[in-house]
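Kindly review this protein for my students:
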Amino acid sequence: MRSWITALLLLATAGALAQTSVVALWPEGLPKPAAQARPQTGPLPGAERLDGERISNVSEPTLTVYPASYDRPAGTAVIICPGGGYEFLSFTREGHQYAQWLSSLGVTAFVLKNRLSGYGHPAPLQDVLRAVRLVRSQAAKYGVAPDRIGVMGSSAGGHLAASASTLYDNPAGRAGDALDAVSARPDFAMLMYPVIAMEAPVTHLGSRNALLGAAPPQQLVDLMSVQKQVNAATPPTLLIHSQDDGLVPAENSILYFQALTRAHVPAELHIFERGGHGMAMRAGQGTASDWPRRAEEWLRARKLIVQ
C-alpha cells in the first residue's frame, strides 16, 4: 500500500495540479438576503482577501475541482470544507492538501470556498448544499457516481460538513431555484476535529459567534448543535480528533459519534493522544500523523476507493 506522502509526491510529479478548475456556485447571483435566519450585524464583506493560505471576505462562493489522478478512478467525489472558525478558510492546509491526497486515491475532490461571518447562518449551509446538488447534478461530467458524493471538513468546516449531513433537507439551505429538486444529502462524511455543539462548555465560541451572532435564539442554537439533528438517514461518518485539542474539545466528536450510534448509523471514531488542533496533514504529531492511513482504510472498507 502506498503511503500518503508517497502518493502526494507522485501526484506533484505528474503535474496534476495544473488540471484544477474553478466553478462558480451561484452564477446567477446569491440567494436573496431575506432568506437568512441571522440578522445582519454589520456591512457585508468587502473585497476578498488572501493572507498566506487564508481566504476571508468571501462573497463569491466557488468549488475548485481536483480531478481523480489515480490510474483507476473510483467514481467517488468529496466536497472539502476548510476550517477557520467561520471567519476565514484555511484553504491550503485544510483544502488544497486534502484534495491532492484524495485525488491520489482516485477520488475527484472539490474544495469549497463558502461565505463566512459577514453573512452568517444560513449562508454557509446554502453554499455546501448547493455544492452537493451541483456535483450530483453534473456527476457524469465529473466522472463520478451520483450516489458516491461525500463531504469532508475540518474544525468549523467539520461543523459545516456535519450540517450538510444532518440539515440537507432544512428549508434554510434551499435557494428557491430548480436545483433545489436535486438531493443535497451526502453519501458519507469525514470530519476532522469538528465543531459539533453550539453550547458551552463544549462549543468553540468563536465559531458559534461568527455563524450565529453573539446572542442567538435558543432555537437556532439547538438547530445548529448538529448532534441533535442526527437520525437514521445521516450518512456513514468517520471522525478524527485529538485528546489534547485545546481549541475544539474532543467531546464534540464524541457527542456526534454517540448520536450516530443511537441512530444506528455506521460510524468510526479515532481520538489520538497528541495532535492538538488543526493538525491537517502535518508530520510530527505522533500517531495522529497517520490519520490519512486510517481514513484510506475506512474509504476502502466502504468500497469508496479501489484496491
Confidence is low (pLDDT under 50) at residues 1-6, 9-18. The CA atoms of residues 90 and 270 lie 22 Å apart. The chain has one domain: 4-26+54-301.
